[in-house]
Amino acid sequence: MKIVTDCAADMPAAELEQLGITQAPLFIQFPEGEVNSADISADDFYNRLEAMRPAIPTTAMPSTGLFAELYRKLAQTEKNILSMHISSGLSGTINAARDGGEQAKPEAEVSFWDTMTLSGGERFQVMAAALADKAGWAMDSIKERLGNIREKTEVIYTLDTLEYLARGGRIGRVKALAGALLNLKPVIRVDTDGKYSTVTTGRTLGKSMTAIADHLQAKYGQTPLWVTVLHGRFAEKAETLTTELKGKLNIAKLEVMRISPVLGVHTGPGIVGAAVVPMELMSDLLG
User: Staple 155 to which of 62, 190, 255, 267, CB 3.0 to 4.6 Å?
Assistant: First the structure.
C-alpha cells in the first residue's frame, strides 16, 4: 500500500523517505509568487513573514488535478493507496483529495482518512499507518488503530499573539478573544470535531504554558506518553514548556520539532505547544 499525506503533518523529509510516504504539497502564496511549503526552510519563511508585515501571505491546498496526477503516478507501482490528511474542520484538503481519487479511477484504488487534527497529531497517525502496513497489518486493523490514536491524541498550543490567526481569518471559535483582547495568550486545542477551541487564556506565555501542562496532566495522569513539543521560531519557550511537561507527565518518548511553514502562516513565529499520544498506541509498531 502507498500512503499519501500533506505537509501539515510536519514530517521531516528524512522520515517521509524512510517510511516511504508521499507528501502532497501545500502552497504559500507570497506577493512575489507561490512556493511549496516543503521547499522553504522554517527560518527563511519566518524572515519573509516578518518582512512583509502587516500583510500576510495566504495558503492554498493542492488541486483536485494535482491529487489525481499523484494517485495515478503512485498506482503505476501500487494500486492501493491510503490518503491521510489535515482535519476537514480546518482545511478542504481532504475534499480535494477525494475528488482527485474519483478522477484517478480505475487506475488507482484510493481510500481516505480524515485525521481530524494537524501537525504532530496528524504525524502520529501517518507514522502508525506506514509502520502497520510495513508490519503486514490488514486495512481494517490499521483503521481501527488510527481511530484509537485519533481519539486519544491531544494537540494543544499557545500563541504569543493572535494577530496572525485574526488576519488570516482562522480564529473561528476563538474569535471572541480578538480585538481588545489580542494581548492575551490563549491556550487552543484541536477538539473532537477537528476544529479549534479555547481551553483557557493566560495573561502571560508562562501562565499559558503551565495551563498546557496542567491540561495534559488532567487528561493523561500517569499514562506513559509520546510527547512532541512543537514551535515556530520559539526555541527558548519550547525548552521552557519541555521542562514543565517533564515535571507533570510520564514521558516515555520526547522530541522537539518545528511546525511547517504552511501552519506558521496562521500562527506567526510565536507558537509553542505539544502533540501527545499514549505510548501504548505506538510502541508495538516501533518494533
Answer: 190
H helices of the chain, in order, are: 13-19, 42-51, 64-75, 93-103, 119-134, 139-152, 163-167, 205-220, 235-248, 261-267, 280-286
Residues 71, 72, 74, 79: what is their CA dihedral angle, to the nearest 10 degrees?
90
Q: Is the pLDDT of residue 36 over 70?
A: yes
pLDDT (tens digit, 9 = 90+) per residue, 214-258?
999 999 999 999 999 999 999 999 999 999 999 999 999 999 999
* CA distance linking residue 287 with residue 17, whole number of Å: 18
pLDDT tens column, 104-136 = 999 999 999 999 999 999 999 999 999 999 999
C-alpha to C-alpha distance for 11 and 263, rounded to whole angstroms: 13
List, in sequence order, every residue forming a beta bridge with 158; answer none if it has no partner: 187, 272
User: What's the mean pLDDT in 77-97?
Assistant: 96
Pairing of strands 250-258, 224-231: parallel
- 88-93: long-range contacts at Cβ-Cβ below 8 A with a sequence spacing of 24 or more? 88/114, 88/116, 88/194, 89/116, 89/193, 89/194, 89/195, 90/118, 90/190, 90/194, 90/195, 90/196, 91/8, 91/61, 91/118, 92/61, 93/6, 93/8, 93/24, 93/26, 93/61, 93/62
What are phi and psi for residue 225, nearest 5 degrees?
-125, 150
With CA atoms as reference, report the closest residue to 10 among 114, 93, 126.
126
Give the dihedral sign, CA 16/257/222/159.
negative
pTM tops 0.90? yes
Q: To the nearest whole percent, how much of the chain has pLDDT over 70? A: 95
Residues 6+ apart with CB under 8 A from 12: 257
Put residue 107 in one of left, alpha, beta given phi > 0 → left and psi -120 to 50 → alpha.
alpha
